[in-house]
Amino acid sequence: MPASILLATDSVIAGAARLLREGRLVAFATETVYGLGGDATNGRAVARIFAAKGRPRFNPLIVHVSGLAEAEALATFDERAREAARRFWPGPLSLVLRRREASGLSLLVSAGLDTVALRVPAHPVAQSLLRAAGRPIAAPSANRSGRVSPTSADHVAAELGRRAALILDGGLCQIGLESTVLDLSGNKPVLLRPGAVTVESLGEIFGKIESSAGDDAAPRSPGRLPSHYAPSLPVRLDATSARPGEVLLAFGAEAPTGFVEVLQLSRKGDLAEAAANLFSMLRRLDRPEFSGIAVMPIPERGLGRAINDRLRRAAAPRGPTSS
Ligand code: TXA
Ligand code: MG
DSSP string spanning 254-268? Predict the structure, then answer.
């Protein structure tokens, strides 16, 4: 059954904002492509985005805000970032910046990284929704993983069906291509994804810009793209009993005993809850007084695939070049 597509009138926007605040997903028009939005401060809502897209791994998502002031509450801006924002926001540019400690953003939205991609969309529907919701909205393109990005409300309905509570129709997307992603979290600006804001126009602010191989696929060149968060402690998967000094990341009610400390990804075995907790719990357990992090088996279905993908990479032997 298709999701309801509604023209974005004021009262429809108010209803959509309410859905978002309740943790539901709302697809909406932007000037680039339609986004599948969820409350970026709510880990469960962000987990639902990954589930709805059927993504096999947790890529960091773009967080949408209504303006520069709202963006500055979430990440630290230097003069370069402010200049880029003044010049290109609202518009099809996403900036990767360091998250603020007190941003309130879910860690899942950044896939555990210390950075976050921020964008201020220009489309009036996206703008009204952000203002009405009064909070940052995570929104990847509103398609199933591995398929082309939707540029009309009908495309979204065909892609996602009932996975979105509501589709806010704002007509055809003018640009039809995802935003440019520029990483300003390091010393040198790096173009992570080309888009409507061209490297030439960015060059007017930054001079020559390094470009990463980047597409939506995983970072291919470790050391250039920000490496995904990996705990310092060794990670042991599919643990069924304790080893000395170990802490446990548990899943489901039947946790083995004997661990120094136990955190529950989800006592009731809910994969969306586990995904929402994953990165923050790994960080909480990653302390030098423990010998290692043991993880109970997680079912390899739905969001469990993305959780296991991340855990396997955290558990993989680490060389100097691994990311
Ligand atoms: O045009 C767009 O940007 C659309 C509309 C809906 O706004 N959104 C979109 O979002 O394309 P998404 O989540 O599909 O794109 C995320 C891109 C990916 O290439 C991802 O790797 C990169 O941004 N990205 C996000 N956060 C990042 C981070 N912290 N570090 C590096 N790359 C990041
Ligand atoms: Mg996409």
Answer: ---S--S-EEEEETT
Q: Is the pLDDT of residue 72 over 50?
A: yes
Residue 223 in this model has a pLDDT that exceeds 70 = no
Is it the case that residue 227 has pLDDT exceeding 70? no
For range 174-184, the mean pLDDT: 95
| The token pair that represents 153 in the structure block | 């409300």
Of the bound ligands, which one is closest to the alpha carbon of residue 190?
1
Taking the model in full, what pTM does it have?
0.90
Q: What is the DSSP string of 37-89?
A: EEETT-HHHHHHHHHHHT-SS----EEE-SSHHHHHTTEE--HHHHHHHHHH-
Half-sphere exposure of 283 (CA within 13 A, CB side): 12
> Given a cut of 70, is residue 313 above it in pLDDT?
yes
For ligand 1, whether the C-beta of 35 sits within 6 Å is yes
| E strand or H helix that includes residue 109 | none
User: Cβ distance 154 to 111 under 8 Å?
Assistant: no
As a 3-state breakdown, the chain gives helix, strand, coil percent values, each rounded to 5, of 30, 20, 50
Residue nearest to atom 19 of ligand 1 (CA): 216
Report the C-alpha gap between 202 and 188 in whole angstroms: 13
Q: Is the CB of 278 under 6 A from ligand 1?
A: no
**Residue 319 — very low, low, confident or very high, per pLDDT cuts 50/70/90?**
low
- Identity of the residue numbered 58: F
Q: Is 46 in the pocket of ligand 1 (CB under 6 A)?
A: no
Ligand 1 site, residue 12, Cβ cutoff 6 A: no
Mean of pLDDT over the chain: 92
Ligand 1 pocket, residue 277 CB under 6 Å: no
Taking the C-alpha atoms of residue 136 and residue 46, their distance in angstroms, rounded to an integer, is 12
Residue scoring higher pLDDT (204 or 1): 204
List pLDDT tens digits, range 87-106.
999 999 999 999 999 999 99
Q: Cβ(35)–Cβ(126) under 8 Å? A: yes
Contact between 189 and 183 under an 8 Å Cβ cutoff? The reply is yes
Closest ligand, as measured to the CA of 228:
1
